[in-house]
Amino acid sequence: MDTNDIRFFEVGPRDGLQNESRVLSCADRVAMIEKLVDAGVRDVEIGSFVHPRWVPQMAQTDEVARQITRREGVRYWALVPNLKGLERAREAGVEHVAVFMSATEAHNQSNLNRSLDESLAALKRTTEAAVSEGMVVRAYISTVFGCPFEGDVDFARVLEIGEELLGNGAEHLSLGDTIGAGTPLQVGQGCARAVQHFGVERVALHLHDTQGLAVASALMAYQAGVRLFDGAVGGMGGCPYAPGAAGNLASEDLVNLLLSMGARVDADLSALCEVTGWLSEEVGLSVRSRYYPYWRSQ
Ligand code: HMG
Ligand code: MG
Questions:
Q1: Residue 230: what are its φ and ψ, rounded to 5°?
Q2: Following DSSP, what letter does each residue of 127-186 receive, concatenated?
Q3: Looking at ligand 1, which atom is closest to the CA of residue 58?
Q4: Which residues form the Pyruvate carboxyltransferase domain (predicted)?
């Protein structure tokens, strides 16, 4: 990996849609994924195998996974909370899975109905089972820069959890600022510690843009050495079990920032804006992106 190369993870078809009041049809979800891949996205999260009563927006991920036309060189990821989710992923032909837990007890309980210790054990079982079957695992840690229930988070705890999750066999971590609580300074400092601790290939950053600071935080993270970034096209998204969670940092805002810094990103900026335009005008979702209206006006 060259120092200017970015590995960009498009999480819109999962995080972007899981908090929408409308449940999209399977056909729209498949079309969204295929348009993103056409836009040059090489890592795309297509949905989640969580309990359909907990997140009805993701209920048809099995069907979505079966319907997408796989393209060579593209990694199609799906979120799995436990062994049951892993089994569903396997049956649907998904080979890249993302496990997840929080850095804080209260959000973990709200989101997964488990204590941190129970989740550490469940993620170990799930990751080891996935790796033994030749799957690749990403591990999310949520609430790393602030928790809706517990407030401030000790970043040393994030590093400890990260060590365990990587020790189980996860390929990399994604550090989730679930409610967009982090300041650019805090995100920059945390990312510098994580990159130093785990290495550049093992640290991704997943920002939600609650305070309008996510682009500034992404810049600080880039300067701190982060080269793996998550974004959701159109800036949609949020965790339904984190009160106050806003949309993700919009992919087009993120990619625009990274290109302006001289970084290389596979995804094409204009093509991402076309997808945002399709979601807004044809699918009828409300998008929250700064760059998209500017791009349209050009
Ligand atoms: P639970 O109620 O404790 O489940 O929920 P359980 O283990 O007691 O099982 C109860 C029943 O659910 C059983 O069925 C299981 O088989 C079934 P029964 O025997 O009664 O017929 N079940 C399942 N069914 C389908 N798929 C499954 C599954 N697992 C059990 N995977 C559970 C525990 C984990 C299932 C629930 O809490 C859950 O689904 N939580 C997911 C919540 C979620 O999706 N949150 C949003 C994603 S995380 C996020 O957005 C943050 C992130 O973006 C990063 C960031 O921003 O920080 C990643
Ligand atoms: Mg998220």
A1: -100, 150
A2: HHHHHHTT-EEEEEEE-TT-BTTTB---HHHHHHHHHHHHHTT-SEEEEEETT----HHH
A3: 44
A4: 6-273
Taking the centre of ligand 1 as the mean of its atom positions, its distance from the CA of residue 249, in whole angstroms, is 25
Catalytic positions: 239
- H or E stretch at 228: strand 228-231
- pLDDT on residue 240: 93
Ligand 1: residue of 20, 49, 50 to mutate (most ligand atoms within 8 A of CB) is: 50
Q: Is the minimum distance from the CB of 54 to ligand 1 under 6 angstroms?
A: yes
Q: Is any ligand 1 atom within 6 A of the Cβ of residue 109?
A: no
Going from the C-alpha of 24 to that of each of 21, 154, 213, the distances in angstroms are 9, 37, 29
pTM summary value:
0.98
User: Closest Cα to residue 203, out of 164, 175, 177, 179?
Assistant: 175
- Protein residues with C-beta less than 5 angstroms from the ion ligand 2: 15
Greatest CA span in the chain, whole angstroms?
52
State the residue for tokens 């400890």.
Answer: 160
Q: Say if ligand 1 is within 6 A of residue 286 CB.
A: no
Q: Could you report the per-residue pLDDT of 52-103, keeping only the tens digit for each?
A: 999 999 999 999 999 999 999 999 999 999 999 999 999 999 999 999 999 9
